[in-house]
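TA notes, week 10

Several of you asked for a full example with nothing omitted. So below is the full record: structure tokens for the whole chain, then the designed sequence directly under it. When grading your own attempts, check the secondary structure regions first.
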């Protein structure tokens, strides 16, 4: 039986994205610590699909592939292979994204004004506020 898909966002999940957006084909920052070790371990259980807003932009897909090939071999013997690079969001069993919430099934729990204050993990202070 085929493995389920684990979809990983790229910026803020694999690429640390500390410099912010510089263009679809510009990926200047180091990886998020532990990202490639996690991907290697997850491959035993999942098909890994990397999908990003970069995926359909000129130069974005190739830049992500090059980034993963270059950075995934650092500290390891070989680069990661066997990844999937869809151009549309795949039908994943689960997705890891730094800018998403898990829906609880209860819309009453979500306040649009509160959502406007959302910050991804790399923009929060230890107290949960914007730096």
């Amino acid at each position: 039986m085929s493995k389920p898909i684990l979809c990983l966002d790229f910026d803020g999940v694999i690429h640390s994205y500390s410099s912010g957006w510089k263009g679809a084909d510009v990926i200047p920052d180091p990886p998020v610590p532990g990202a490639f070790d996690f991907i290697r371990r997850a491959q035993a259980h999942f098909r890994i699909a990397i999908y990003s807003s970069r995926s359909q932009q000129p130069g974005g897909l190739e830049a992500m592939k090059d980034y993963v090939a270059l950075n995934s071999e650092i500290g390891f013997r070989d680069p990661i292979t066997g990844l999937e690079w869809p151009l549309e969001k795949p039908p994943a069993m689960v997705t890891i994204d730094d800018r998403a919430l898990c829906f609880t099934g209860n819309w009453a729990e979500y306040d649009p004004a509160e959502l406007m204050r959302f910050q991804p993990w790399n923009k929060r202070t230890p107290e949960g506020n914007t730096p």
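Helices lie at 35-42, 60-71, 112-115. Use that as a sanity check on your answer.
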